[in-house]
Write a structure and sequence with these properties.
2 copies of one chain form a homodimer. Chain A is mostly helical and 456 residues long. The first copy, chain A, has 22 helices and 5 strands.
Chain lengths: 456, 456
């Protein structure tokens, strides 16, 4: 934002006093900084700035605003003023904007753009937003493989202004079937008279339009690509996905994962851009579900009320024991959730994960039990308490590791996001389990003590 | 892995029976798939495969193995057999390998490569691994701005094989000061006789070598770049950071964040690649810290033992109340931690965050209190219990939101990773606070009941 903050006062003054000069002033500024600047201006000022930039440059800046801001401007200033700018947008960006707008406004907007573009947008709208089809743009460079390299370079020259990425040129046959790819580097290195078919690599890494965006991101990353073609089941090339869009996907997916792990329903906008009540709506349902889940801790404890009345000290250990189970569960869950997201772990590995977590739970449980038993001894609650706490600790840590590791795998198996098995969710499960285990162990280990204090 | 799995049997057979033919067989396979294949072969087979590929191609494959695997091969087969391959590696990749090796082995390895490369690696080793200097490579395309475009393209042709990225050409003066940048697209679009100085953009987005890798990743993402130059404080260009390395950084940082959030010390390797005891070492310390922290819940409850003995029912509500505080805290923490990571929130926003979270805590607290009071009423514990639970709930949710939101900001302020304020850590804090609040409220609201049951 530093650039935008620095130039904002002068831009505002120019917009007020001689708007025609503003274009020259901002010519050298990066589109991204101008987009930052747009968010700092009043909407009227922002609109005048866009108009002064000219449709071409304005579209580049407008594309970099977030979908919400774009939609606000369209709804406020109408399709007459924004139509010329919107017409210059890349089809994938335009598609995102239309998806954000109310249906009527979106339809009206599409009427202002070139019919070919409108048709492309309609096609792109058909794919789910989080699939390869929803991420791709239809603007890419393609040639017939019969062209020689010099002709291809000439073609790139002519088309480069329109295409989103010029780093790769795709060789297509007359039915748009993808035959090969060459990078601009390959073309520059090759002799100008070589046919494209000899320069291009025929093993093209590609994805289907239905591919999930996480898989798209993994593929592009694995092969260090700058763009990835989308090809349908007949081999026809539909579009390309560029690395900058994939990075946005990565950031978005990560935000979702972290919010889910914290038991928040993922939010579409930034922290300060989310309204107070929208945030309540994203938080309250999960809190309520977990709260109702925790009712069972009360129910479980009530089931042992006679034991508790007889030996009130038992209550002192409840938070310590249940939280320890929750903590070990959250460790396992975070390891498995991340492993699933990066592809290091798949659902089929479930038994290897189970074996390992049982082992981890055993070792960690015994370790914590020995520390915990020492503490009970220092509190002076006697040997039977020491045994009760020790056994319970091994049990809850074992339960925590197992539940924490298996739940994300189960969720993935049934098609849900593994991160939904949030840390609070696992903690709640283990709380109830832990209380039941604790009082069951206590009833045996402390039977004499309980009998002694029981009302006759 | 599918490609690697498919070709593995045939490659193995070739390696056994006619190793000289293996190169032709794998020629068209992507380096990344060959790297996958390497991990599936026995180490001896892998070494023979590398030697058959020839140093140039072998280096491309070898680079894509993870640092640990690379180091294993070097330690096993020695610098004599791996020297020629290692010499062809990009300096940044070689630097990572040397950093992974024991000092002696690394030094011996550097003796086998060209002195210039060794000097570059020594220079790169000086930067911290997670800084721009640690990420950059020193191989990039540069020209004097006085060249004309045709000369520049000729130069690109000659150098392209060595440079990691050919998408940008940097204009440097005789002291390597960065004057401007042009993309390959700009060069192809320009007339061949134009001087480079007229084609290049003089406002080059760049980072300093000390810049933290998270900031590097944000900058590259913000401006949709494929490579980002690293420039020292005198304006001298030191290297470039490419988008594929940044994506690896993003994945690594995300893994760290999620593991920290789950109270696990970040692991260097994948789940199944981490040894059982290494994993225990990453988990046990945090579990132990949290466990000892939870001792204070016991201490807090003991402070109110008379109250508990008088009204044993009070214990039934402890897990419900403290976990609800922890849950709201984990929501706030995950929102703030993510906001800090993406740059949407900065430490200076702390009072805006505080105000908002106080409001959120109030609304969510009142909402949950009304549900909770209904449940107490159904359990039939009477109006004084209803009031105690209601007040405590508002209090713990308010405390949860505030602590959960402020702790990550505080950690960032003092230079620690905000994700260290993991969900379990916040839950532990709130557990202790919640118990103290609960019994304090209970002592007032239930004073009569307590007095009635107190032993004289």
């Amino acid at each position: 934002m530093r650039v935008a903050v620095a130039i904002a006062p002068e831009v505002r003054e120019l917009l007020r006093e001689s708007p025609a000069d503003v274009r020259e002033f901002v010519e050298e500024i990066h589109d991204e900084d101008l987009a930052d600047l747009m968010t700092m201006l009043e909407e009227d000022e922002a609109m005048i700035l866009l108009e002064q930039l000219g449709a071409d440059m304005a579209a580049d800046v407008f594309e970099r605003l977030d979908d919400k801001k774009q939609a606000e401007l369209v709804e406020r200033f109408g399709t007459e003023r924004l139509g010329p700018i919107v017409s210059e947008m890349a089809p994938d960006e335009l598609t995102d904007l239309v998806a954000e707008l109310p249906d009527q406004v979106g339809d009206r907007l599409l009427e202002t753009v070139h019919p070919d573009t409108a048709a492309e947008v309609e096609e792109l709208l058909a794919w789910p937003e989080d699939s390869a089809g929803g991420l791709m743009t239809t603007e890419f460079l393609s040639v017939s493989p019969r062209f020689i390299v010099n002709e291809v370079i000439e073609h790139v020259r002519k088309q480069a202004a329109d295409a989103e990425t010029v780093y790769y040129v795709y060789g297509l046959d007359q039915d748009d079937k993808l035959l090969g790819v060459a990078s601009l580097r390959d073309l520059i290195l090759a002799d100008g008279r070589t046919p494209f078919s000899e320069v291009m690599n025929e093993r093209v890494i590609n994805v289907a339009p239905e591919t999930d965006q996480e898989e798209v991101s993994r593929t592009l990353r694995k092969y260090d690509l700058v763009a990835l073609p989308v090809v349908d089941k007949n081999g026809k090339m539909l579009g390309v996905i560029t690395v900058d869009d994939v990075m946005d996907v990565m950031v978005g997916e990560q935000t979702e994962d972290i919010q889910r792990l914290g038991a928040v329903e993922p939010m579409d906008h930034k922290y300060f851009d989310t309204s107070f009540w929208m945030m309540i709506r994203k938080r309250a349902p999960w809190l309520a579900v977990l709260f109702v889940g925790e009712f069972f801790t009360g129910t479980a404890m009530r089931a042992y009320d006679k034991v508790l009345e007889a030996v009130a000290q038992l209550a002192f250990y409840v938070p310590l024991l249940v939280s320890t189970g929750g903590n070990s569960g959250s460790q396992s869950a975070s390891l498995i959730i991340r492993g699933l997201a990066t592809g290091d772990i798949t659902v089929r590995d479930w038994w290897r994960v189970l074996l390992r977590e049982l082992g981890q739970g055993m070792v960690l449980g015994i370790f914590l039990a020995s520390v915990g038993m020492g503490r009970v001894w220092m509190w002076g609650d006697g040997p039977r308490f020491i045994i009760t706490v020790g056994i319970t600790l091994v049990g809850v840590v074992l339960a925590g590791c197992t539940v924490g590791a298996m739940l994300p795998l189960l969720l993935r198996r049934i098609g849900l996001d593994p991160a939904t098995s949030s840390t609070p969710f696992i903690a709640t499960l283990i709380d109830v389990l832990g209380i039941m285990l604790y009082f069951t162990v206590a009833r045996f280990a402390l039977a004499e003590l309980i009998a002694q204090h029981m009302p006759p």
